[in-house]
Amino acid sequence: MSSNSKAREQWGSQVGFILAAAGSAIGLGNIWRFPYLVGMNGGAAFVIIYIAIAVTVGLTVMLTEFCLGRASQKGSVGAFKRLAPNKFWRVFGWLGLLAGGFIILSYYGVIAGWTVKYMFGSFTGLMGQAAGGGSGDYLNAFLADSKSVIAYQVGVMAVTVIIVACGVGKGIEQSCKYMMPGLFIVLLILIARSVTLPGAEAGLEFYLKPDFSKLSGKTLIDALGQGFFSLSLGMGIMITYGSYLSKSENLPKCALLVFILDTLAATLAGLAIFPALFAMGMEPAQGVGLTFVTLPGVFAQMPAGAFFSFLFFLLLFLASLTSMMSLLEVSVTFLMDEFKMGRVKAALSSGSVITILGIPSAYSLSGNLKVFGMSFFDFMDYISNNIMMPINAIGICLFAGWIWTEKLREEITNNGLIRFAVQPVWITSVKIFAPAAIAVILASGAN
Question: Considering Cα of 123, then 126, then 127, then 128, what sign does the dihedral take?
Answer without folding.
Answer: positive
